[in-house]
Write a structure and sequence with these properties.
The protein is α+β, with helices and mostly antiparallel strands and about 475 residues long. It has 10 helices and 25 strands. This is Death domain-containing protein.
């Protein structure tokens, strides 16, 4: 959500009114006091500020005429008046600005332009050691600020982070030989949660990099139906973690506009693993299914994922039902994901897709007693959400499902205490049957209902009961 707030200055902050002394007047003439030069100047400046604020309209050409070669995915501009404090919270794209009232002299007005980018002719120092951990934020102003402003940039590093494993890079907005050269920002900065904060007076490009081994990424499974019967196209896309706005912008206008999103999930590399490879031989094997990869091997390299600025489709495959009988709704195609700590496999079930529509998925009725796996995560998430499950109880739920407290502590640390994200990872671990899940009933609907009742979430358990009966 984009939020801009301003505070009105006190009158004496920008004004020094001194009325000139008047000569004595006769009793027969009305007394007149001429306004001082300072008062006239203040009134004139106030009028100009109000006129600019009312009449100013964004000029889209500003975004086009600068930063040649840079791919801008989002932009925002606003006015800053001297003597007024302003705050900008652009959570959707991971940026915060705190502008104090003395950043500009009283009576001055500056136009601030912010552009967000993930790709361009960028040159970073020591890419082998320092990996990209944020988008690039270009910030410019029509006037230099006389006092620093506070800037916060979102980063994608999970877990415990300190300033020794984080750097801020900066680049001038004028390219050198058609490239933007980034160098280390030498000012002080602090890391708090998912944001890096620092002060600045000059304006240019800013980016966060890290020396840590980034293992957490995002994944999305897409599909589309072929015009021919019993044929489907699938694409598993792995990409760098970004804010929701940046991720959405990366997918806008891509080849996936006419595809259907099956499921989104977190992806975590195994320790010391450098490559993810999708094995499209079903495990266990199933008869009458033909699966072919578009490009082999179906793999992503971690180093390439960290630095990529576009959505890259490295795991595209086709599924064809070659049997003489009707499709079996229980034919789940389970494909191992080699090199991943989570998820261990990707599941596709083309038979559950309703061919009468190209935009909806129909699910077969769930039965009591069946074992659940990662393919059911989206269904579980939808039920909990529609039942108004209290996400803050994710840790209590995890304990009742059989997860160890140490694992829950790691989940909490990895997700910056984001309850929704913690719940998703907890359910994923439960579906993969880690720790003592099997001793607590395994990954079944009944075990989930029992755990929900134990943490006083009986209405949610009743919702699940209605769903599976």
């Amino acid at each position: 959500m984009l939020e801009t707030r301003e505070k009105e200055p006190a009158l004496d902050q920008c004004q020094d009114l001194e009325l000139s002394k008047e000569n004595p007047k006769t009793e027969k003439r009305p007394e007149f006091k001429a306004p001082s030069t300072a008062a006239i100047g203040f009134l004139y400046t106030t009028f100009i500020v109000l006129l600019v604020a009312i009449c100013w309209q964004p000029d889209p050409s500003i975004f086009i005429s600068s930063l040649p070669g840079v791919e801008v995915i989002a932009s925002h501009k606003f006015l800053v008046a001297g003597g007024q404090s302003s705050q900008l919270h652009w959570d959707e794209y991971g940026l915060m600005l705190d502008i104090p009232s003395d950043a500009l002299p009283c009576g001055f007005v500056a136009e601030v332009v912010i552009r967000v980018s993930v790709s361009g002719p960028y040159v970073y120092p020591d890419l082998k050691t320092w990996k990209p951990a944020s988008a690039v934020y270009w910030i410019s102003s029509s006037k230099e600020f006389v006092n620093p402003i506070l800037l916060g940039i979102w980063h994608n590093v999970k877990g415990s982070v300190n300033s020794s494993s984080i750097k801020v890079l900066t680049a001038e907005d004028t390219p050198q030989n058609m490239s933007y050269i980034f160098n280390e920002f030498l000012g002080d900065f602090t890391v708090k949660g998912s944001y890096v904060y620092f002060k600045l007076t000059g304006f240019s490009g800013k980016k966060v990099v890290t020396s840590l081994d980034v293992r957490n990424f995002q994944g999305s499974l897409f599909y589309k139906m072929s015009d021919a019967g019993n044929k489907w196209k699938y694409s598993l896309v792995i990409y760098n973690s970004h804010t929701k706005g940046v991720t959405r912008s990366l997918f806008d206008g891509t080849q996936y506009e006419d595809w259907i999103l099956d499921i989104k999930f977190d992806v975590k590399f195994e320790e010391n693993s450098k490559i993810l490879e999708l094995i499209i031989t079903p495990d266990p094997p199933l008869e009458n299914w033909i699966i072919r990869g578009r490009i082999n091997p179906l793999s992503y390299h971690k180093d390439a994922l960290q630095s990529q600025g576009h959505i890259v489709s490295n795991m595209r495959f086709d599924i064809h039902w070659n049997g003489s009988s009707d499709l079996l709704t229980d034919d789940y195609l389970n494909f191992p994901l080699k090199g991943a700590e989570y998820p261990l496999s990707i599941t596709a079930n083309p038979s559950r897709i309703d061919h009468k529509t190209s935009a909806n998925i129909s699910f077969t009725k769930k039965k009591r007693g069946i074992k659940l796996d990662i393919k059911d995560l989206n269904d579980i998430d939808l039920i909990l959400k529609s039942s108004s499950f209290d996400n803050s109880k994710w840790s209590d739920l995890g304990l009742k499902l059989g997860l160890f407290q140490t694992r829950l502590n790691t989940i909490k640390s990895d997700n910056s205490q984001d309850a929704k994200a913690c719940l998703g990872e907890t359910l994923g671990k439960w579906l993969n049957r880690v720790d003592e899940v099997d001793k607590n009933g395994g990954a079944t609907w009944e075990a989930l209902m029992d755990a929900l009742e134990k943490i006083e979430q009986k209405p949610v358990a009743e919702k699940i009961k209605d769903y599976i009966d």
